[in-house]
Amino acid sequence: MLVKRCKKGQVTIFVIVAILIVALVSSYFIFRNNVAKNVIPGDFEEVHNSYLSCLEEQTSLGVSLLGSQGGYISLPDFEQGSRYMPFSNYLSFGGLEIPYWYYISGNNLPRQQVPSLEDMEADLEKFILEISNECKKNSYYPSEYEVLVRDLTDSKVVIEKNQVKVEVISDFSVSKDYQSYLFEEHSFKIDSKLGELYESAVDLYEQEMEEMFLENYTFDVLALYAPLDGVELSCKPLVWDAGEVIQNLSEAISANILALKSEGKNSDYFVIDSNIKNSFRFLSNPEWTSAYEIAPSEGSLLVADPIGTQQGMGIIGFCYVPYHFVYDIRYPVLIQVYEGNEIFQFPFVVIIDNNVPRKGHSPIEPLSIEQESICDNPGVNATLSLYDSKLRAINGEIFYDCFGSRCNLGETEFGELTTFVPQCYNGVFSVRSEGYADYTLVKPGLVIEGEQILMILDKEFTLDLEILSSGDSEFDQAIVNFISGEGKTSTIVYPDQKEIILSEGEYELSVQAYGAAEIEFNTTYEQCVEGFFFGIGKKCYEVEMPSESFNRALVGGGVGEIILTENQLEDSRKISLDLGELNPPENLNELQSNYILIESRELGVELN
After folding, report:
1. What is the pLDDT of residue 251?
2. What does the buried/exposed string (b/e) look like for 35-64 if buried means 16 or more CB atoms within 10 Å of the residue's CB?
3. What is the CATH code for 374-457?
4. What per-residue confidence (pLDDT) applies to 592?
5. Is 558 in contact with 583 (CB distance < 8 Å)?
6. Are 283 and 313 contacting, i.e. CB atoms less than 8 angstroms apart?
7. Residue range 129-151, pLDDT digits in tens
8. pLDDT band at 33, cuts 50/70/90?
9. Burial of 398 (0-12, 13-18, 19+ CB in 10 A)
């Protein structure tokens, strides 16, 4: 019995030893790759650093774009202004299109486009994924290494006050002399005050929204540089040229806005009292799109008529001229917050309405609350199909407009897009497709579940534009308008532009040609005052405006119509417009005749 027990104990020991051996061998194979992976052969780390340097360089470009474009890399959808409110949702400055943080839309509604820090981080993450291909180029790495870089699969950005942290995931393989190593995760930091400057910009924006200091400075300029309210002792009317008043006012506003500063004595009128530690400045330019309106006016003149203080005061020749004008002013200001060489800038529309600064708003959060958009309603499922005139499937981006909201439905693939369309009566589909004219379709009633909507787009063709004239006279510039049957206008300034993009359709044409001229004229009009002399009768006199001269004037032009088919456009390379003989005016009457003449003169139109 004792012997049997010993054998059993030996067997147990062998079993335990065998299990340990198997475990060790398994552990070796399981952890071998991980152990090897943590040991970077040779100078592979330097090659990897080249990859990180490339990513840092490209990311720094994105950081710079965020600062120079108001916190945006990918810009919001373009929103057109209107005749009465000419602002789009962008300010063009230094070759950039910068989204307004606050502006008035074309339908006269206040709008706000203030990005959050999270929005900026997401925008930069997307940018890094898009530009990372630049870092695949072999020129970034020593030739003796074999480098294989896969597309980035993910990126994570954190914007802090004084730095931007980035983490990306991508397979980066380095090989040399039968050794290789795979880098999968990459992280780096960029020294930047983007986060701090953004916070200061938001603080300054909130201060302006609450205190309206820009509007208050504007009103001070208005009171000093333009006729606003007043009384003058005179028996003659006071007359101002509205265009000159607006020009002087816009220049004065620009100069005073530029004078505002962040540092100085508190008693200095131009110092903005703010707790922001970064420096800031304000830029304004009279050439930027603005809106100025003055009432009452008589055409292009502001006229204040004289009156007597009471019956019989005309005996002593006592008259006075009271005046009161109402101004609506809307103009952009570019606000820049900066530290060293770094800058964060955003535009803002300043508003004076009926001589009164706009009403102040609470900070960003309450202002950002908007009514639920129609786009938030998933609606019904529909199939949208895009074709050209020959019924070939084409791709394009489709939008849906309803109740002031624009929904981006997506892009077609092989000419079709099946998606949810919000429920809306008489909604409008809009299509953009490269190489084709913009297309709109008003959908009567509601879109029905499962409905298939067919849209046919007209192909666009680029033609050379030639403008001819006869006689000895010449023109140096012509304004050419092609107005389609759908009311869309293409305007060409010839000869600066010598190409026109057209699609199939019917067009009305108009041309105004300008050339050298020498015209000088004086303007006078008659003004009458009741009870001027001894309180009896009426006294009339002439008011003479300063003389004006022109060295360029309208010398010719005309109108016409043309119907273009796709076949004609395919077979043509040039469209020629013949103005006939030009008529350089020598006086004001001839200039007025030219304006009347070109409304009836037929243009010669020829396709070649």
Report:
1. 93
2. eeeeeeeeebeebbeebbebbbebbeebbe
3. 2.60.40.10
4. 72
5. no
6. no
7. 887 777 777 666 776 777 777 77
8. very low
9. buried
